[in-house]
Design goal:
By secondary structure, the protein is an alpha/beta fold. The chain has nine helices and twelve strands. It has helices at 5-19, 78-90, 104-109, 153-158, 171-179, 191-199, 210-219, 246-259, 262-269; strands at 52-58, 61-62, 66-68, 75-76, 92-98, 115-121, 131-132, 137-146, 164-167, 186-188, 205-209, 224-240. Helix 5 links the parallel strand 9 (164-167) and strand 10.
Length: 274
């Protein structure tokens, strides 16, 4: 866009003054397409990241948080909408990169990504190697079964032949092993694979949080139901490399989104809350 030289000089001086009191911007990877730099600082006194690209890891296999829309081939979900809104407020550009869940925490610890948005449960153990944002929603653990399943969750627990699956390296896996004691839990690379195994009757139930369960039930209308709750009170948050400057900036944006109702609207849109 064409601008006068004088305008650029004034803008540069204003940017220097703003930078003296703004938080340090987080270094990020090069964007895949030109970033759209805001012409004005973020409103409400939020940090200004100066149009930087933020590399955001997602699985694209965890609806309603993230998945690939079959019609458009584009990534969709709560993570995409929420991070886009955060960057709108912080003057940054999200670059979503598909990443496997297995090994994602060492990758985050090593700074391979700027941010992980994947419906991640906060745990003290994980917090030893990565940073977390403030939580954006609370979830509970349930057992997802086929719609024609007649056994109760207690009966499946007692049935030596009942096969239970979940995703490897998750708190769901921990909950599954604690609840279904004595059973060999089948852990899959992602929840999509576990749900597919359930649908094809290779397993009889999937331990999964209520939000993700709702996402898979919506994608497979009439195929599944929830058999019962097995664990409660987990909170989900974004993940960052240790000591990332981005953590405080995202927390500020989340607080603003909470205050003006945007976070609640997004949570309702994607079924994170009723």
């Amino acid at each position: 866009m064409k601008k006068l030289t004088f305008f650029f000089s004034v803008l540069a001086l204003a940017s220097m003054l703003l930078a003296s009191c703004a938080p340090k911007a987080t270094p990020t990877a090069a964007p895949t397409e030109p970033p759209v730099v805001a012409t004005e600082p973020p409103a409400g006194g939020l940090p200004d990241l100066g149009g930087k690209t933020i590399v955001v890891a997602v699985e694209n296999a965890y609806p309603p948080f993230n998945s690939i829309d079959q019609a458009s081939g584009q990534g969709v979900g709560w993570d995409y909408d929420a991070v886009a809104e955060i960057c709108k407020r912080l003057n940054c550009v999200p670059e979503f990169k598909e990443a496997a869940w297995d090994g994602i925490f060492p990758a985050m610890q090593a700074g391979e990504y700027d941010m992980l948005a994947d419906g991640v449960t906060f745990t003290e153990e994980r917090a030893q190697i990565v940073d977390f944002s403030t939580p954006y929603v609370e979830v509970n653990q349930y057992l997802l079964v086929r719609a024609d399943e007649t056994r109760t969750i207690e009966e499946m627990k007692a049935d030596a032949n009942a096969k239970i699956g979940t995703q490897i390296g998750t708190t769901n896996e921990i909950a599954a092993k604690e609840y279904f004691t004595g059973k060999e839990i089948q852990s899959f690379e992602d929840f999509g694979a576990a749900v597919l195994a359930l649908k094809s009757s290779d397993i009889d139930g999937v331990v999964i949080d209520n939000i993700a369960a709702a996402g898979f039930m919506k994608e497979n209308e009439g195929a599944f139901k929830l058999a019962g709750q097995i664990a409660t009170g987990e909170t989900l948050a974004f993940v960052f490399p240790p000591n990332s400057d981005l953590t405080d900036a995202v927390n500020a944006a989340l607080a603003a989104m909470q205050a003006d109702g945007t976070l609640e609207q997004l949570n309702k849109k994607w079924g994170l809350i009723p």
